[in-house]
């Protein structure tokens, strides 16, 4: 019989029971439980619609919440149970959520997350996801400082995502490899299914919203045109794939090789995607898988966030493709 590995077991084996790995395993376990709740709920999204929309009550007289609000609630409530988590930053909340219960006095970790990314896809039964990144507190003492929760991605101790698709998968890294676990719905556990995921060398996919072309600058439009031919880009012309859920687009490109692009344009002068809970988790993972993420000028992991909800232009995937974008946007390699 082949070994059965769940996420906690995998993390503890990889880090051989250091104190930090036990703390991290406990935090990840809370994320795993929250992900199971959200997975269950997303699978029933159509049924929930039949029973009532957000803001209404269903036939059992229960409040029906929007799924992204539900996901936020579940993740925050479960992370609050952990004595190791000091604060959570969420796309759904303007400020940091700081835990001040006595049992959080020694808490040393900060979690940033997008509880339900790509939420416009829920109504049409298309994959959505959760992104997360975990930092260790820099300052001593119980107070949470700005410099604790606005850390560059290179300081992260763990990052990952959950994709709620045809199956539910959780992918994580502590910097040592990228590992994927698939939720077995019969036993309700995430089991190791993709160990040491690495980005294929061939990069045959490009993913971006091409309807924004009239708003792009000329260099960027030229680059996209070139991806469709064989000029200046190594390998075959690329094919387009775009879901509109960042996690799902990233997951496919991680398995198949490719580049995801969300540039700045006239509609989104700073880009659309958020640095802390969209850019950084995926930049951390792609680095561990052998790829690269940039805002067009520099490594996303080197950016010191100025704001909790800061947006960035975001390019992620095979390194040669991303470096070419940097060159075209004026940052020479
Ligand atoms: P959201 O956080 O409001 O869901 O927006 C983020 C999503 C990403 O999942 C996706 O990559 C992007 O927005 C798609 O944007 P667009 O519709 O402009 O192509
Ligand atoms: Mg999002």
Overview of the molecule:
The chain is an alpha+beta fold. The chain has 2 domains: 7-194, Fructose-1,6-Bisphosphatase, subunit A, domain 1 (Fructose-1,6-Bisphosphatase, Chain A, domain 1, 2-Layer Sandwich); 205-328, D-Maltodextrin-Binding Protein, domain 2. It is built from 9 helices and 15 strands. The protein has helices spanning 7-15, 19-43, 45-51, 67-80, 146-149, 218-227, 246-256, 275-288, 319-328; strands at residues 85-90, 97-98, 109-117, 128-136, 158-164, 168-173, 179-184, 189-194, 205-207, 239-240, 258-262, 273-274, 292-294, 311-312, 314-317. It has an 8-stranded mixed sheet, with helices on both faces. It has a 5-stranded mixed sheet with strand order 10-9-11-15-13, with helices on both faces. A two-stranded antiparallel ribbon has the order 12-14. A hairpin with a 6-residue loop joins strand 1 and strand 2 (97-98). The longest helix has 25 residues, at 19-43. The chain is globular, with a radius of gyration of 20 Å. Residues 58-62 have low confidence and may be disordered. The chain binds 2,5-anhydro-1,6-di-O-phosphono-D-mannitol and magnesium ion. Residues 91, 117-119, 209, 244-246, 272 line the site of 2,5-anhydro-1,6-di-O-phosphono-D-mannitol.
Short summary:
The protein is an alpha+beta fold. The chain folds into two domains: 7-194, Fructose-1,6-Bisphosphatase, Chain A, domain 1; 205-328, 3-Layer(aba) Sandwich (D-Maltodextrin-Binding Protein, domain 2). The chain has helices at 7-15, 19-43, 45-51, 67-80, 146-149, 218-227, 246-256, 275-288, 319-328; strands spanning 85-90, 97-98, 109-117, 128-136, 158-164, 168-173, 179-184, 189-194, 205-207, 239-240, 258-262, 273-274, 292-294, 311-312, 314-317.
């Amino acid at each position: 019989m082949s070994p059965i590995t769940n996420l906690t077991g995998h993390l503890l084996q990889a880090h051989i029971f250091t104190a930090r790995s036990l703390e991290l395993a406990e935090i990840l376990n809370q994320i795993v439980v929250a992900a199971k709740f959200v997975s269950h709920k997303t699978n029933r999204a159509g049924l929930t619609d039949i029973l009532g929309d957000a803001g209404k009550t269903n036939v059992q007289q229960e409040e029906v919440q929007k799924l992204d609000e539900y996901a936020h609630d579940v993740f925050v409530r479960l992370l609050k149970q952990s004595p190791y988590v000091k604060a959570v930053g969420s796309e759904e909340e303007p400020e940091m959520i700081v835990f001040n219960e006595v049992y959080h006095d020694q808490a040393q970790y900060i979690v940033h997350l997008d509880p339900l990314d790509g939420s416009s896809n829920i109504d049409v039964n298309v994959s959505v996801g959760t992104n997360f990144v975990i930092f260790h507190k820099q300052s001593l003492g119980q107070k949470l400082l700005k410099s604790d929760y606005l850390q560059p991605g290179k300081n992260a101790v763990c990052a990952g995502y959950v994709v709620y698709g045809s199956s539910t998968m959780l992918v994580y890294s502590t910097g040592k490899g990228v590992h994927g676990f698939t939720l077995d719905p019969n036993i309700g556990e995430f089991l190791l299914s993709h160990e040491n995921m690495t980005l294929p060398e061939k990069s045959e996919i490009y993913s971006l919203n091409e309807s924004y072309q009239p708003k792009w600058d000329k260099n960027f439009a030229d680059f996209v045109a070139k991806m469709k031919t064989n000029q200046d880009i190594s390998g075959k012309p690329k094919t387009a794939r775009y879901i509109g859920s960042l996690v799902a687009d990233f997951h496919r490109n991680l398995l198949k090789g490719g580049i995801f692009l969300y540039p700045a344009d006239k509609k989104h002068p700073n880009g659309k995607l958020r640095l802390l809970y969209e850019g950084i988790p995926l930049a951390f993972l792609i680095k561990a898988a052998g790829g690269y993420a940039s805002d067009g000028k520099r490594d996303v992991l080197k950016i010191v966030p100025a704001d909790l909800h800061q947006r960035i232009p975001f390019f992620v995937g095979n390194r040669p493709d991303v470096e070419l974008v940097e060159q075209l946007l004026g940052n020479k390699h």
